[in-house]
Amino acid sequence: MLPHFTIAYWCVFIAAMLPFVCVALAKGPGVGKPRREGGFDNADPRAWLARQTDWQARANAAQANTFEALPFFIGAVIVAHQLKAPQGIVDILAVLFVTLRIVFVAMYVGGLPTARSVIWFLALIVNIAIFFAGFR
Predict the structure, then answer these.
(1) pLDDT digits (tens, 9 = 90+) for 19-65
(2) Nearest 5 degrees, angle CA 85-CA 87-CA 90?
């Protein structure tokens, strides 16, 4: 039997793309505007992002956080697969993790810190569950 891309592996791909969605949110309003009018500065993008405020600054922070959460999620999915965890459980948990992370980004960009923190914690618990799904 040939190996196949599981739903959990697709979730890894989606989670890996999520930071780029966040950065598009952060940079998007500045793209196409002249630098002298506050437009995106591709010559110094980090400094430009550091000067952003409100939801754009939060979108940039969400980008950093999604990158930070990614290694553990990737590792958890790989460990679960290597330990031959029940695929249905791993897939459900991976979809739940990605869903929670998308909601997390929405709460972050929307300026809802308490809800964001609750969602972050729930996603962490789900990720831990993925990691130990194959534990016997």
Answers:
(1) 999 999 999 999 988 888 888 889 999 999 999 999 999 999 999 99
(2) 75
Q: 3-12, 90-99, 113-122: which range is least confident on average? A: 3-12
Does 89 map to a domain? Answer: yes
Domain range spanning residue 72?
7-23+53-131
pTM above 0.85, yes or no: yes
Please indicate, yes or no, if residue 102 is contained in any of the structural domains: yes
Contact between residue 123 and residue 65 where contact means Cβ atoms under 8 Å apart: no
Residue 82 falls inside a structural domain: yes
Q: Across residues 8-20, what is the average pLDDT?
A: 98
In angstroms, the CA 26 to CA 118 distance is 23
How many other β-carbons are positioned within 10 Å of the β-carbon of residue 20?
12
Number of domains in the chain: 1
Give CA–CA dist 77/15, Å, rounded: 12
- Residue 82 half-sphere exposure, CB side, CA atoms within 13 Å? 8
